[in-house]
Design a protein that fits this description.
The chain is built from 15 helices and 12 strands. With 541 residues, the chain is of the alpha+beta class. The strands form 4 sheets. The chain has a 4-stranded mixed sheet.
């Protein structure tokens, strides 16, 4: 606190003008150092455009090169940088030439088309191009899709055609990862919903490798193997993730390896089944038929004898036969309605036919540090527990023929892959930060030069005592000579007289009317050490 108080007193003693001058000098030094540090520490290049296509990068590079603007392209080839401070100029230059221009132009195509002299064919072509550009932009918003091109074929309306030709489309995409079939179905539905009269079966999706991800016209034969392979990989990865989540709390992730092989059947199946229940019947109709018949027959014949051969007028017929017949028939028919159940099952998904799971365990994971290795019985017990956990996590079924193999072996770690990355040495660190170090040293040198050649002279000039005019010392009165010579000793008087000659005591003897107290005060202000020595001599004498 004493030092702070002393500092404040010294600052107050300087006066307002000197304090203002010191403040302005400090602000000037800080401003100069800050500006120098800003210009030395700013990056050499700054980003101009990012996320560009290769065609746009080549066009922008050619335009900047012809205009004499230096530029740089990142290693991925999708961003362009220019020197710091030239971003606005470069963008205005490229905007004048219509760059960057995307190949997927949308409805802004109609802004450049004039209505005068535009035929219906040109209008239709512009409309199709606009639809293709808008669909490509929307498809690129899907996560994982970096670029997309859409080709639409609109039907040609003909008056002599019986069958109506539906529109079709083809899409080619470029994705970040190798698994690019996940978005194929979504792209098909998006394109089909954007055009009137188009169905999902009329959209074909391909990747940049030339593989058909989803073909038009349903499940084509060339797309089925790729879809089945992708489905098997997805199922195997799902099961593998389940096993890893189960074993990670039990073992560390580096102490086991899991491999899953799934065989999937994607055949479409349809099952029709009709079931009759004989115990459940209901009378539907009853038919009863009754028949009754009665008949009577009689037949007469002449008797055989002599009288038969004798002519007679009348012959009595006394020989004859009679028969009576009566029949009755009754028939009853009852129709019953039996209950039936019809089951139709259509399966269009997939079925897991077989699973093979292999798990490798690190044998050293079963032993605790600084202890003896466990016995083989304990290891086998833990392996059986792990087999049960893996079987439950993977959903293995014995009746399906799934296989599971768990083996404990000694892992051979690759030292180059598993070892931690070593810190770069001093030389490498110095080389990577050489530019920053040079900028920092330059800023420090500039600050030191400003302080030495700018701040120090100004401070010395402001804090220096004003030069007094040297005039011949006036005659000293007798009483003043007595006051100066009598109390002092020989060792103090000569310096005092010398200082008086040099102007240190000049102000004390300027006027003879000042009192001895005022003269002493002026003397103390000029040289406090000399005044203290004089006071000590006076006190001793």
């Amino acid at each position: 606190m004493d030092r702070i108080t002393l500092l404040l007193d010294n600052l107050k003693a300087l006066g307002g003008k000197k304090l203002a001058a010191l403040g302005l000098t400090f602000a000037l030094v800080v401003g100069v150092v800050s500006i120098a540090a800003f210009y030395l520490s700013r990056p050499t290049f700054e980003l101009l455009y990012a996320g560009l296509d290769r065609e746009d990068v080549s066009r922008i590079g050619a335009a900047l090169k012809s205009s004499g603007v230096p530029f740089d392209v990142n290693p991925e080839g999708n961003a362009v940088s220019v020197p710091y401070g030239q971003t606005a100029q470069a963008r205005m230059l490229l905007a004048e030439r219509g760059l960057p221009q995307s190949a997927n132009a949308g409805y802004e195509l109609f802004d450049k088309v004039g209505a005068l002299g535009l035929t219906s064919f040109m209008q239709e072509i512009t409309r199709v191009r606009a639809l293709e550009g808008e669909l490509a932009r929307t498809i690129q918003l899907i996560r994982g899709v970096k670029a997309a091109r859409v080709h639409i074929v609109m039907p040609d309306e003909g008056s002599l055609r019986r069958a109506k030709q539906p529109p079709s489309a083809s899409v080619i995409i470029r994705t970040e990862g190798p698994d690019d079939s996940s978005a194929a179905q979504a792209i098909r539905h998006l394109v089909a919903s954007s055009l009137p009269g188009m169905t999902v079966d009329q959209v074909t999706v391909l990747n940049t490798d030339g593989m058909i991800l989803s073909s038009a016209g349903g499940e084509a034969s060339d797309a089925v193997p790729a879809k089945t392979l992708t489905l098997e990989k997805s199922v195997a990865k799902d099961i593998q993730d389940n096993i890893r989540r189960t074993l990670t709390p039990y073992l560390r992730l580096s102490n086991f390896q899991v491999s899953v092989r799934a065989r999937i059947n994607t055949d479409r199946r349809q099952t029709n089944e009709t079931i009759y229940d004989p115990d459940s019947r209901v009378e539907r109709s009853i038919r009863t038929v009754k028949e009754s018949a009665q008949s009577q027959n009689s037949a007469g014949a002449q008797p055989t004898g002599v009288e038969r051969n004798i002519p007679q007028n009348t012959v009595n017929n006394t020989d004859g036969k009679q028969s009576n017949e009566e029949s009755k028939k009754s028939e009853e028919l009852t129709n019953f309605e039996l209950s039936s159940k019809t089951v139709t099952t259509v399966s269009g998904g997939y079925n897991i036919e077989h699973l093979s799971v292999a798990v490798l365990l690190n044998r050293s994971a079963f032993s605790e540090p600084n202890k003896e290795p466990p016995k083989p019985e304990a290891v086998e017990k833990q392996i059986r527990e792990i087999e049960q956990l893996v079987s439950s996590a993977a959903g293995l079924k014995k009746e399906r023929g799934d296989m599971l193999k768990v083996t404990a072996v000694d892992f051979m770690f690759n030292e180059h892959e598993m070892s931690p990355v070593e810190n770069p040495g001093f030389v490498a660190t110095l080389g990577s930060h050489l530019g920053l170090i040079l900028n920092a040293l330059t800023a420090i040198v500039i600050a030191a030069l400003v302080v030495i050649f700018g701040l120090a002279p100004i401070r010395n000039a402001l804090l220096a005592a004003p030069q007094e005019r040297r005039e011949p010392p006036p005659l000293i009165a007798a009483d003043q000579q007595l006051a100066l010579s009598s109390p002092t000793s020989e060792s103090v008087a000569p310096p005092l007289l010398a200082n008086a000659r040099q102007g240190l005591v000049g102000d004390v003897v300027d006027t003879a009317k000042e009192s001895a107290r005022l003269r002493l005060g002026r003397l103390i202000e000029q040289d406090d050490a000399q005044a203290a020595a004089i006071m000590k001599q006076w006190m001793r004498s």
